[in-house]
Design a protein that fits this description.
By secondary structure, the protein is of the alpha+beta class. 29% of the residues lie in helices and 21% in strands. The strands form four sheets. Strands 9-10-15-12-13 form a five-stranded antiparallel β-sheet, with helices on one face. A four-stranded mixed β-sheet has the order 3-4-5-6. A four-stranded antiparallel β-sheet has the order 8-7-11-14. It is globular and about 65 Å long.
Length: 378
């Protein structure tokens, strides 16, 4: 079953006013948008409000015991330390890559539908700065594979933090030495009405791949979150599925892990089967899916779920056409594959992005991509 009204975009809504949680107004918005699990959504949002209140209380305690001036001083020093760490990393990579004092490197990669993400990375070794220029990236797309600036910024800061040598907390200071240029009207700087759900869960992964490729830091990981949903009029379930990570100069890729812009835990099989009308047929590593190399890429996984009552299933995935690339002579990881397996045994190729209604005894099989290898095989 398709739910065309199950969507909601909120530009601004005051959730808590005068210490009161505005549940009535929120419930009305959710019901109007077609949410099937209003109670669960409200519980989740209440938990987030509670977490924020706890953070406020802890910050007030810290201010009370140490004084605002001292707390703010240390906050600024944490940011300054992060900025210096990123500057040191940029200078180190510039030297290791044999670049001029101010020089540029280039990288690009593609989504499965042909969308291009292009990057010119300019490093100024004297200043310890970098410019990420995404000119040449494809225009805003008719669909949901657009990513707002915040998603691109998150991918860049994640990559920078991953490349520094020092143990620093992730914070805004990591971005102080860099600038990010996004062409207006592109898929990375779309209009306010553009669809962006795939930007958060898929395009973010490809941006990370492109940035790592420009730095020459590691082979591509699975480049996908393998977003799987299922439900009917009364229930809804959503999971992201692990795959293979890319190898690097002195490490093998890890198998069956979440990589880069995702870190969610998957539901335990016992809980999945207890709470939903499904059976977990398979969940295992996908042997041979990692790219070959001096350091091989990690293996993807195979996950097969059978339904025991009619359910609508959907998959939103990438790297089903373009393989996760290897680096420095390493081989690419295997593409992912999705299938519907009917009760009579027929296997139907499901593509990378699709929706279907399964009947009892039918199953969906999701094979996730492997990671790319690094270095020529011995």
């Amino acid at each position: 079953m398709y739910f065309p009204r199950a969507r909601m975009a909120v530009e601004s809504f005051k959730l808590v006013e005068n210490d009161l949680f505005r549940e009535k107004e929120l419930r009305s918005m959710l019901e109007e948008a077609g949410s099937r699990q209003v109670k669960d959504v409200i519980s989740d949002i209440r938990a987030q409000v509670a977490a924020n209140n706890k953070g406020i209380a802890l910050m007030e305690d810290l201010m009370s015991s140490e004084g605002a001036a001292r707390v703010q001083k240390y906050m600024k020093e944490i940011q300054n330390t992060a900025a210096v760490s990123v500057q040191d990393m940029l200078r180190r990579i510039s030297i290791e890559r044999g670049l001029k004092p101010k020089d540029s490197v280039y990288a690009e990669d593609f989504m499965d539908n042909g969308l291009r993400i292009k990057l010119k990375l300019t490093i100024d070794r004297d200043l310890g700065t970098a410019e990420f220029d995404f000119a040449g990236t494809s225009a805003e797309v008719y669909g949901n594979l657009n990513a707002p600036r915040s998603v691109v910024t998150s991918a860049v800061i994640y990559t920078l933090r991953s490349l520094v040598d020092t143990d620093i907390p992730l914070n805004q200071g990591c971005l102080d030495p860099v600038s990010i240029l996004l062409p207006k009207g592109s898929m990375l700087s779309p209009s306010e009405n553009a669809g962006v759900v795939g930007g958060n869960v898929l395009v973010s992964q490809r941006v990370t791949d492109v940035v790592l490729l420009a730095f020459g830091a590691a082979a591509a990981s699975q480049g996908c979150m393998n977003n799987f949903t299922m439900g009917d009029e009364n229930i809804g379930y959503y999971e992201t599925i692990a795959g293979g990570s890319g190898a690097g100069p002195d490490w093998d890729g890890a198998s069956g892990v979440h990589t880069h812009m995702t870190n969610t835990r998957i539901t335990d099989p016992e809980i999945l089967e207890q709470r939903y009308p499904v059976l977990l047929r398979k969940f295992l590593l996908r042997e041979g899916s990692g790219g070959v190399g001096l350091h091989p890429g990690g293996e993807g996984v195979e996950r097969e779920i059978e339904v025991t009552s009619p359910l609508t299933v959907s998959i939103l995935s990438e790297r089903r056409v373009h393989r996760p690339w290897g680096l420095n002579g390493g081989g690419p990881g295997a593409c992912g594959e999705n299938y519907i397996v009917r009760k009579d045994g027929r296997e139907i190729f499901f593509g990378g992005k699709n929706t279907a209604v399964l009947q009892p005894g039918d199953a969906i099989r999701i094979c996730t991509p492997g990671g790319g290898g690094f270095g020529a095989p011995p």
